[in-house]
Design brief:
Layout lengths: L1 H4 L12 H5 L4 E4 L7 H4 L8 E4 L10 H5 L3 E3 L6 H17 L1 H9 L15 E5 L3 H12 L3 E6 L3 E4 L3 E5 L3 H4 L5 E4 L13 H6 L5 E4 L8 H10 L4 E4 L19 E3 L10 H17 L20
Parallel strand pairs: 1-2, 2-3, 4-5, 4-8, 5-7, 8-9, 9-10, 10-11
Antiparallel strand pairs: 6-7
Helix pairs in contact: 5-7
Length: 305
């Protein structure tokens, strides 16, 4: 933040001091991207012109007051693309090669031969065609998987996905895929898009991966689908309630891989988030167009997907 401090008065605050810090402020950097403090302090934003959040998702700050205002909203799009793509490839390999079971058997000192699966030629649907989805598609395709996308607009000539399906017709084409990867932003259109109907449409051998937002999924329906065998497994990095409650059934399900909202968080990520803001701050000071400008009506930075 040193470069920012040289060009502005910077006030650092926790959530309980946000209202006081907002008075007279021109810009707000929401470094704690999980914080829900901004709506409650919004009454004090008497001269705010720009809000930047240290995440790709903007749902924690996309409340009515901000949407209706003329305050510009930017995000940290681009920071997590490759690391999340690597996470997705990792869980696909973990399912195919049964790594979790191998680790369990190792701890029990048990030698139990098994057969595993190939990933080459398996079909993957990436739901969400923004930068994270595109990076994921490129990496999975390089590993030999057959990748398609789902987005706002159907097309057959996308450079990263090849075929992109209309996400509004999700259940019509879900039966064709071995892996379904959710990377979509959380909007009114995508909330609860993976519920009982979607899971029932998937192959009983399919695996579901969520690295987008927890609220994309009706969690109870996912648990039921896993228990009933409607789908074969799930890898989940995000949840509708975080931290996941200690008594939640997902913790003990053998066909589930869990991680605590860390799929994009590689060594140095916190510094990179600040660098993104600092670079945008210089653009803002100099009157240049801001990068990663969010369309507040859509809830994300517009792209071709």
């Amino acid at each position: 933040m040193e470069a920012v401090e040289q060009g502005a008065e910077v006030r650092y605050t926790r959530a309980d001091g946000l209202a006081d810090a907002l008075r007279g402020a021109d810009a707000l950097f929401v470094y704690d991207f999980l914080s829900t403090a901004v709506p409650g302090a919004w009454h004090a934003a008497d001269r705010l012109r720009w809000l930047h959040i240290a995440s790709a998702g903007v749902d924690p700050v996309l409340f009515d007051g901000l949407v209706r205002s003329e305050v510009a909203l930017t995000n940290s799009r681009g920071v997590f693309d490759d690391s999340i793509a690597e996470y997705v490839l990792g869980v696909v390999l973990s399912f195919a090669k049964d790594f979790a079971r191998s680790l369990d058997l190792q701890r029990e000192s048990r030698w139990q031969h098994r057969e595993t699966e190939r990933i080459a030629g398996k079909r993957v649907l990436v739901v969400g065609t923004g930068p994270i989805g595109r990076s994921t598609a490129r990496l999975l395709r390089a590993a030999g998987l057959d990748v398609s996308g789902a987005g706002r607009r159907a097309r057959a000539d996308d450079p990263d996905f090849g075929t992109v399906h209309d996400s509004a017709e999700l259940t019509e084409y879900l039966p064709a895929f071995d892996y379904v990867v959710a990377v979509a932003p959380l909007t009114a259109r995508t909330k609860d898009m993976f519920g009982a109907r979607a899971f029932a449409a998937m192959k009983p051998t399919a695996r579901f991966v969520n690295v987008g937002r927890g609220e994309l999924v009706v969690t109870g329906d996912l648990v039921s689908a896993l228990r009933s065998g409607d789908i074969a497994g799930a890898a989940l990095d995000v949840f509708d309630t975080e931290p996941l409650p200690v008594d939640h059934p997902l913790w003990t399900m053998e066909n589930v891989l869990l991680s605590p909202h860390m799929s994009g968080d590689v060594v140095g990520w916190r510094d990179t988030l600040v660098e993104v803001f600092a670079e945008n701050f210089q653009r803002w000071r100099e009157g240049e167009p801001l990068r990663n400008l969010v369309d507040k009506g859509l809830g994300y930075v517009p792209s071709a997907g």
